[in-house]
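Quick one:
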Amino acid sequence: MREIDCSYVEERVHQFLDGELSDREADVLRHHINACAHCLDETDLVDAIKKLVKRSSACPPAPDALRLRIVTQIQTVTVRYEL
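Output:
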């Protein structure tokens, strides 16, 4: 298996976690990550952030009544400043 350094992992950690690497390259990164505490910590941190962002962006959309109130308020403020 090819030897890689931490900078190589850092450049590809997002692609690795997103499953965008070839099986061979993913295996090379996985081998290094499992043997390197620094890269393991970095990969865990990036993975946790990605999951947090994904979870927070999965919120349901605002109800139509709320969206209408917001748009109305924006239009009201805009009209007041244009006069």
